[in-house]
Write a structure and sequence with these properties.
By secondary structure, this protein is of the alpha+beta class. It has two domains: 30-131, Nucleoside Triphosphate Pyrophosphohydrolase, CATH 3.90.79; 165-289, Nucleoside Triphosphate Pyrophosphohydrolase, CATH 3.90.79.10. The protein contains four helices and 15 strands. It has helices at residues 104-110, 113-131, 204-216, 277-289, and strands spanning 37-43, 46-49, 56-58, 73-81, 86-92, 100-102, 142-145, 150-153, 159-160, 165-174, 177-182, 194-197, 219-231, 236-247, 259-264. Strand 8 (150-153) and strand 9 (159-160) form a beta hairpin. The radius of gyration is 21 Å and the shape is globular. The two termini are 31 Å apart. Its cofactor is Zn(2+); Mg(2+). InterPro entries: NAD-cap_RNA_hydrolase_NudC, NADH_PPase-like_N, NudC-like_C, Nudix_hydrolase, NUDIX_hydrolase-like_dom_sf, NUDIX_hydrolase_CS, NUDIX_hydrolase_dom.
Length: 293
């Protein structure tokens, strides 16, 4: 696997963001004056790395990466600031052949924990901006308000904000066994946890129980929230839970899943990459019930 330097490369003393420090997403204030500015740059759906193989491009004025001209900028949003710098999300038109494009899924697998938040935020905002061009009420052209991160209709002034779609993902356990499945969309041989979107009028817990039953025929109990993860494909928020088997025979929904079964924790199939919430929920459960050797 190609090694990459995901940290900030200029100035030299800024080698990484602080993992525990979230971006301040309010309007930039006087406290941000004089801070170095960096942009995460996309060309379409691909992330562009700079000459050093890093995710952050040094910016000149108004959040424009120094390596590009204002005329190449298709989209621009201010992501926010932390104690070290100000961060932007930028999409350019086309890309020079000598630049390094990186698939977003691969990038998320390689990025440091401290860079996951700005990368997911940038991908979600630019993906939304790419698809949201016209007003649903009157058909007018939408104009991006980058500092506030919304779009306004040029005719009726309606406002459009980036959506967040809540999804539930659940580790269902039965003692030393966990329920894993795969859909035709997954990598061949890879199994993961059951997941699905929360529907209007549902609580997350109701969505979890419904999705598990619809896809596997299994009823669950003792539902407990574990963790969450932004998932910018395109604008999901994954809410991770653990639930215990209550009843039911395993009957897969063949319209959604091509395979699935109960797997012993010592005999697991290929699992999703380590950066995914699915993998983290699995490893957390194994660490909880397996005795320390």
């Amino acid at each position: 696997m190609r090694l990459m330097n995901w940290g900030i490369t200029l100035p030299p003393e800024l080698t990484s963001r602080i993992a525990s420090e979230s971006l301040d997403r309010r309007q930039l204030t006087v406290k941000d004056a004089g801070k170095p500015e960096y942009a995460i740059v996309f060309s379409g759906r691909e992330l562009l790395l700079n000459e050093q193989g890093a995710m952050y491009w040094s910016c000149g004025t108004q959040g424009v990466p120094s390596a590009f001209s204002q005329e190449t900028i298709v989209q621009h949003y201010v992501l926010g600031s932390d104690s070290q710098a100000v961060f932007h999300a930028v999409e350019i038109a086309g890309a020079a052949p000598d630049l390094q494009p990186e698939d977003l899924r691969s990038a998320m697998g390689l990025a440091a924990e401290s860079d996951a938040e700005p990368l997911a935020m940038a991908a979600s905002l630019l993906g939304w901006g790419r698809k949201t061009q016209y007003c649903a009420a009157c058909g007018g052209t939408l104009v991006a308000i980058s500092e506030e991160r919304y779009k306004a209709c040029s005719q009726c002034q309606a406002h459009y904000y980036p959506p967040v779609s809540p999804c539930v993902i659940v580790l269902v356990s039965k003692g030393n066994e966990i329920l894993l499945a795969r859909s035709p969309r997954h990598k061949p041989g890879m199994f993961t946890l059951l997941a699905g979107f929360v529907e209007p009028g549902e609580t997350v817990e109701q969505a979890l129980a419904r999705e598990v039953y619809e896809e596997s025929g299994v009823r669950v109990k003792n539902i407990r929230y574990i963790a969450s993860q932004p998932w910018p494909f395109a604008h999901n928020l994954m809410l991770g839970y653990h639930a215990e088997f209550e009843s039911g025979d395993l009957v897969l929904d063949r319209d959604e899943l091509e395979a699935g079964d109960w797997f012993h924790i010592d005999q697991l199939p290929e699992l999703p990459p380590r950066f995914t919430l699915s993998r983290q929920l699995i490893e957390t459960y194994i660490a909880k019930i397996k005795p320390v050797s």
